[in-house]
Design a protein that fits this description.
5-stranded parallel sheet, about 425 residues, alpha/beta, 14 helices, elongated
Length: about 425
């Protein structure tokens, strides 16, 4: 071969943020230590150089092959390939390529995306590529953004840390060996009633349950776990005999995400468990990230409310929200402001054209910014530096407006005192 052309309820937010960052941190560290390895096989020199340049610019390690004789070295070395890019002319019934790609997937012990490139866009060409082992099919000329997107997605499918699996039952040793051989972290427990306690010390991402166990049946244990918010979303896979499976399917009483025969082979066992663990981990990370985002937004809102005068109006201009700062400065209560129009604050210091220009700007979906003089409830005047931002729908039409203002009354008063001082000085001269 030629080479070388190179969430859960009760969990503190701080803990959720810490756990949600583990996978991303590990992935970043792994990438920093060793760039993801991308295999390129192309019969065209220009295409090889172009693809290698795209991948190198994105921080990947591109390994270029110029001929297809064997892929025996694809999965050798400490860094497994993150993806394979093939630019080949497929022959009808390409069985040799299909067998080779299948062997590669078996050696790598995880699904390696195989991206086919071709000038053909017809269904027959795509189908031939998929039958040969393609994961994705990209027409040429290759869109750089789409290619990098597919490779990035493939990296996210590989666990930064081993998936954690808890096997429950008396006949779990063989399945545990299969899963450990696939790189997973596995624990076994025979007493099904101690599973909740075990989950507190071992945060399993998949549960494999025997359908029939001494202390309780698999579906009964599932019911117990589903009532606990901390364990409710953990995927459950039943290991069953044929008779147990037929019985449960007929009665529709299985409350699990999947079920497998106790005689399942290693490859489908790894595939099913990995898919559920990956989905669960992704869901947990999304939930934790959402919790962090919500917390940060709450703190940002608190900072804005402490500093600025904030109000929200509907499309007609009626106030639907007024923060405490607005009430303090205007000396109106929230109940007095809600449902009213900002016209109630008019000071008489601006001409009608001033407000017409403001309304024309925001009703067209644009942001307006300027200084406005308003009148308090007690009749005194105050000035604000105001920004009004419209929220627009899919058709570009505003459906509400948010106004954020800063009280600049003291600035205006200082300017007025300065002007008076200058005027008196001119009189004296």
């Amino acid at each position: 071969m030629a080479k070388g052309e190179s969430m859960a309820k009760g969990i503190p937010k701080a803990q959720i943020r810490k756990e949600s960052g583990k996978a991303d941190t590990a992935l970043r560290h792994a990438q920093a230590a060793e760039p993801a390895r991308i295999i390129i096989l192309s019969e065209r020199a220009g295409q090889r150089h172009e693809l290698a340049a795209i991948l190198a610019a994105a921080g990947y390690q591109a390994e270029v092959l110029t001929q297809f004789d064997d892929f025996s070295s694809l999965c050798s070395g400490p860094v497994l390939p993150a993806a394979v890019i093939l630019d080949l002319k497929l022959q009808p019934g390409e069985s040799a390529l299909a067998r080779t790609l299948d062997d590669m997937q078996t050696q790598c012990q995880h699904s390696v995306p195989v991206i086919f490139l071709s000038i053909h866009t017809d269904i027959a060409a795509r189908l031939a590529a998929y039958r040969a082992g393609a994961t994705h099919y990209l027409p040429k000329p290759v869109e750089r953004a789409r290619l990098l997107e597919l490779i990035a997605e493939s990296l996210l499918l590989k666990p930064a840390a081993p998936y954690r699996v808890l096997l429950v039952g008396n006949e779990s040793t063989q399945h545990a060996q299969m899963l450990r051989a696939g790189g997973m972290e596995v624990r076994i427990i025979s007493d099904s009633l101690r599973v909740p306690q075990k989950l507190l010390s071992f945060a399993a991402e998949v549960l494999l349950l025997d359908m029939e166990m001494a202390q309780c049946r698999g579906p009964e244990l599932a019911l117990l776990l589903r009532d606990e918010p901390l364990f409710a979303s953990i995927p459950i896979i039943y290991l069953t005999t044929k008779s147990e499976l037929l019985l449960q399917v007929n009665t529709h009483s299985v409350q699990s995400e999947n079920y497998l025969s106790k005689l399942v082979a290693p490859e489908p066992l790894l595939e099913v468990v990995s898919e559920h663990a990956r989905s669960y981990r992704h869901h947990r990370a999304q939930t934790a990230a959402l919790s962090v985002t919500r917390y940060e937004l709450e703190r940002q809102q608190q900072a804005i409310d402490f500093h600025a005068i904030v109000s929200v109006t509907d499309v007609s201009g009626k106030i639907v929200f007024a923060n405490e700062k607005f009430c303090q400065v205007s000396r109106y209560s929230s109940d007095e402001l809600i449902g009213q129009n900002h016209r109630m604050l008019k000071s008489g210091q601006h001409p009608a054209a001033f407000y017409e220009e403001m309304w024309h700007c925001i009703s067209a979906g644009n942001i307006w910014h300027g200084e406005v003089c308003n009148r308090r409830k007690d009749g005194t005047l105050y000035w604000v530096d105001s920004s009004i931002v419209p929220f627009v729908d899919e058709e570009g039409l505003p459906y509400q407006y948010i106004s954020i203002r800063t009280d600049i009354t003291h600035v205006k008063e200082n300017e007025q005192r300065l002007r008076r001082s200058q005027a008196f000085a001119n009189i004296g001269i």
